[in-house]
Amino acid sequence: MVFEILSELQYQVYMPTTFIFSIQAGRSDSQTILEESLVTEPALETEEITGPEGGSRFIRLKVNGNNQFTIRYQARVDIDYNIIHQRRLAQTVPVNKLNADELHYLFPSRYCQSDKLQKLASKEFGQIETAYGKVSAITEWIYNNVEYTTGTTNSSTSAFDTLTERVGVCRDFAHLGIALCRALTIPARYFTGYAYGLKPPDFHACFEAHIGGEWIFFDPTKLVPVNGLVKIANGRDAADAAVASIFGKASSRSVIVQCNCSDPDFKPIYFSDTENQKGLSYH
User: Fold this and answer.
1) Does residue 5 lie in a domain region?
2) CATH code, domain carrying 111
3) By CB atoms within 10 Å of each CB, which of 5, 13, 137, 187 scores lowest?
């Protein structure tokens, strides 16, 4: 499926400031960039930096003095996700068989304090036999027990805060899902991307869990089709995959995000269609 994506971010800068943006579509075996463009107004020198796993891409630029600028990214991206059936998802990979990259997503991180959630995770989900069953139950539990409300959290809100306050946005839902997975010894990582059908349009955060040798996609918000995302980046949590990291002093003036499918045969698949049957992998 081919998706057309766009993001346009405008900032007011008050002093010499360096920005690191994560807005470009990532490259992987299942995600091919057919064409793309990145422009700034006024024209600024930009540098592309590749993430440690090779798929994530970051843009670094510096703005001098008191100024206003816009960065605009557009792309056409071909997505070839994999449907993983339940038989394979019944397999659990023990910790001693995980490779270094997978182990990286097993430990607590800044926003995902899995070490504080082990008691709850064990009580609520520990009796479920398969890893896929556990993560599906975690996703349902978050959907049913945490209220999705915009403007209720901020950049410092953690999974533990979300569990306590029972309210948040997609970022918080993802962090809580990741923390509960890790508390059950299931590697999990943050997923940020462009989402088809998200209202209002914005960047979207979800998570992936490592099950049966595959990274399987989960979205506790259930706001978008599971086959309607273009991945930007993965990370331990939002600290690794923030849309914009600002080193200096600046304020956001506007954010425009679009994600459309140009394939007339596209049929959205929602989380309820995959639950307890099969998983979807964007790896």
Assistant:
1) no
2) 3.10.620.30
3) 137
